[in-house]
Amino acid sequence: MRSERRPLSAETSEFARARVSAEQDLRVQQEHATRTVAEHAHDADDLRGLLAMLGLEAGARV
Fold it and tell me: Taking the model in full, what pTM does it have?
């Protein structure tokens, strides 16, 4: 069975744009959170532990 590609409807492309926007917003929030935690961490171990508690990665771009 072959599926044919249909053009995106206005509703589908609006949803896709909203999803991309939400993903970008999430990345910005995560970067801000990582930066804030880094400013308040006592040392590298503290930073890693705090980031892990928040579900953020220690290697994230700051």
Answer: 0.68
